[in-house]
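Continuing the series of single-chain predictions for the mutant panel. This is the parent chain; the variants come on the following pages.
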Amino acid sequence: MTPTNDLTILKTDTLGRREQTSPEQRDAWLDAFERTSMSGAAFSRLHGIRYTTFAHWRQTRRRQRQATENKPAAFFEEVEVRRSDPDPVGLKISLPGGAGVTVSRPEQFPLVAALLKYLDCTC
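Parent structure:
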């Protein structure tokens, strides 16, 4: 295997420390990786980048892209809040695809918040 395009291989000193990379270099490596069908481990090994460092770069880029996307603030299809006796508190959240959750007691709110936070991270 040869390094992708004109990308350099990171140099190391006698103690195994690698040179610092600029944001432009990182972006070039990540762009090149996205154009390949290689695994992250194979790509980082080929270019002399520690896999954990490369994985961190990829994660940071993914989070930055998610933050800048014009996605809606919430992925709910419908939220209905009702307050009536004998059901003092009620929250019904309908998600795309037909899934939903109904909260009828205040102590359930932290569980639903954790579920929605998890679903937002995996979408």
